[in-house]
Amino acid sequence: MEHILETLSVRSGVSTELLLMSGLGVGILLLFLSVSSAISQRNPAASRIANLRSQRSASRLDRGLLRETVQTPKGLFKAALPGKENERRKLEEKLLQAGLTNPNALRYFTLARVWLGVFVPMLVALVISASKLPGMPIPSEIANALDSIDNASTLQVVGVLAGVGYFLPTIWLTQRQKERKRKISEAFPNALDLLQVSVEAGLGFDAAMTRVGNELAHVSPELAFELLSSQHEIQAGRPREQALAEMARRTGVDMIQSFSAVVLQSMRFGTSMSEALTTYAEEMREYRETRAQEMANKLPVKMSAVLAALMLPTLMIVTAGPSVIRYFRAFID
Fold first, then answer.
1. Alpha-carbon distance 207 to 228, whole Å?
2. Which of 187, 230, 304, 321 could form a disulfide with 220 if both were Cys (CB 3.0 to 4.6 A apart)?
């Protein structure tokens, strides 16, 4: 063995120690590959059991699609919610329209309001009170900054923090809801054109909605999520009428509510789906054009206040400035 190593070392010009290390590394690599291949080979029976588990998990997920997506919290969390049932339903719909479809979304939202509106102000009040006690392990910079705050100022700070913390999640939720509705409204006419083309090409309505949802996954993920979720609910066993109505409720967009009504009416009376979508697409184009004209007509009114605020002071300075200067010169002389 030593003679072979010496011969290889002389022929290759590499030291014997380096050859030994290289051989050891290759042996460890081959051992690792063999062990990995042996572990990765699964038993066929275990593979079938894993497939059955995945199928059961998918069926449970499908059944979960047919339940309420937002659950009303109970106990202490319910105290932070509106007292009337219709107001709680409006809050649930607002969460859905904001894209928060987790079953515990209302619980998390209530928890955020409680933490920001109650516990954070209490924590600030405790820190201010502790900074005034001798011997408390508080940094000197913070203690000096909080030492000038008296009891009345502490109550004011706590009250402001409680109000801001309680209403800040609601403001954030409203802005998120408006932004999501705006994105869906802007993307829906294009999706309707794609749906019309797919139906005219020979696809069924469900297959066309699935195709359009997949095509819009990167362009408009919000609308794609709603279309694919509706089709998933239909595949899980929910009637098409309820699935489309639920999609309209989740989005809160008037165009999608009208679209659901048009589709259901066409299926109920047996009219051509392609003609119904063509007519509705034309109406959507006219609606977009009318809305663009309306926004353009509002521009002069909106710009008038800005122009008056920016140009009026300049005009006053240019016109009245020389007279004021001459007046002061005459008064000084």
1. 10
2. 187
